[in-house]
Each structure stands twice: as structure tokens, then as C-alpha cells.
Amino acid sequence: MNVLQIDLDIYDDEEALLQGLQNGEHHACACMIKRYAPRVYAVALRMMGDPDEAEEVLQETFISACKNIQKFEGRSALNTWLHRIATNAALMRLRKRKDREVSLDSPIETLQGDDIPRQIEDWAFQPAHMALDSETRDVIEQAVAELPDTLRSVFILRDIQGYSTAETADLLDISVSAAKVRLHRARLRMRELLTPYFSQTST
Q1: Long-range contacts made by residues 192-196, C-beta under 8 angstroms, separation at least 24?
Q2: Does residue 105 form part of some domain?
Q3: Is 181 buried (19+), middle (13-18) or exposed (0-12) by CB count in 10 A?
Q4: Are residues 14 and 66 in the same domain?
Q5: 3 in a domain, yes or no?
Q6: Which pTM does this prediction carry?
Q7: Whole-angstrom Cα distance, residue 173 to residue 22?
Q8: What percent of the chain has pLDDT over 70?
Q9: For all residues of the chain together, what is the average pLDDT?
Q10: Do 49 and 117 share a domain, yes or no?
Q11: Boundary-marking domain end, from 70, 98, 126
């Protein structure tokens, strides 16, 4: 995807870019890749936890988008549509990891085998809204990578990428109630994973 020489000013807004894509203009797909690839790759990398697989998801996303651009009806932003394609591509790959599948109906187990305190039920961790040093960011990224696949995808879309719960449910093709359950469990697991680190740094 060597699109570094493509001038983004050819299409100065999303409407112009979309028009170019749907008209089959020569540089439109390359411009779309250059404009949106970093954000799509960030989502893919967090979901897959592996740079090579994230690159595969990235390529699948834009190949699919360029082939199916005529099906894009403009009901959502182009960026949201691309994230939906990327999320679906990543989930397809994650489903193949049979040994890592976790049932959403199974209880959450703490690292120490204890019950999770009820007072953290409403805890919401949103790293996108925090000023983080490199060490803290690395710790958070590692914690995200340790989430079960089904929980990680919801957490990334809702708390890192900033989509609403309804948008997250739509991207994952699940109900809003299921998205809320998964997000709640993801936040609990993140709290469990990160509490030891933040307890040490606060002393």
C-alpha cells in the first residue's frame, strides 16, 4: 500500500472522496487508504494483538471497501463503515482461534480467585481521555491484549475509539444489551488487570 505520494488535497472532504470512489476515479482508493489507514490499523492491531495479522486485516479492509464502494449508502460516516469492515475481518480471524474462545455466560474469575468487589461495577476506564506516559500506555496496551477476544473488541470500539454503545453494537452486529454486558465485563477485567499497577504508582 505505497500511497505516500498521493496528494490528499485531490479530495478535500469526505463527500468529494466518496464521489471519486463511486465514480471509479484513479486516485480515489489510494487517497482513502492514506487518509484512513492509520486509524483502521490501530483498531486492527488492538483487536488482533499482532502486527502481521493487523496488516492482513488492514489489507482485507481496503480491498473489500474499494470493491464494494457502490454498496456504501452513506448512512454512516465513511470512517465508521471502514471500521465496521475492519472489525468484521478481525472477528473472522479471531473466531479461528478456537483455543482462545471464551463464553460470555461464564463467570468472571479474578487473578486471585476472589469475588470482584461490587463498588467497581460502574467503573469506566477510558485511556483515550487520559494523558499517559509511555510506561503507563504500554501497561494499558498489554492489559487490553489480555482481554478475551469478545470483550476486547467491545472495549476497543467503545472506550478507546469512542463509539457510542449503539454504534459499537452496530459495528459488531450484536444487540445493544449484549454490547452493554460485554463492555461491563471488559471494564471489570481491565480494572482487575490494572489495579496492581496503579496501586504501586500511587504509593
Answers
A1: 192/110, 192/111, 192/116, 193/111, 193/143, 193/146, 194/125, 194/139, 194/140, 194/143
A2: no
A3: middle
A4: yes
A5: no
A6: 0.65
A7: 25
A8: 75
A9: 77
A10: no
A11: 98
- Choose among 110, 184, 104, 194: nearest CA to 148: 104
Q: Which domain holds residue 151?
A: 111-201
Residue 105 DSSP label: T
State the angle between helix axes of 78-95 and 28-48 in degrees (0 to 180), rounded to the nearest 10.
Answer: 40
Q: Which residue is it, cell 471519486?
A: 20
Are residues 73 and 40 part of one domain?
yes
Residue-level pLDDT at 86: 92
Q: For 83-105, write each residue's pLDDT tens digit.
A: 889 988 988 888 775 444 444 33
Instruction: Please state whether 109 falls in left (phi above 0), alpha (psi between -120 and 50) or beta.
Output: beta
* CA nearest to 47, candidates 92, 79, 78: 92
Decide if pLDDT at 129 tops 80. no
Eight-state DSSP code of residue 108 = P
Distance, CA of 122 to CA of 175 (rounded, Å): 20
Cell of 79: 470512517
Which segments of 42-117 are extended strands (E)? none
Residue 113 burial (CB < 10 Å; 0-12/13-18/19+)?
A: exposed
Q: Are 93 and 167 in a shared domain? A: no
Instruction: Annotate 182-200 with DSSP letters as a single string.
Output: HHHHHHHHHHHHHHHHHHH
Q: Domain for residue 122, yes or no? A: yes
Q: Which has the closest alpha carbon to 188: 120, 138, 136?
A: 120
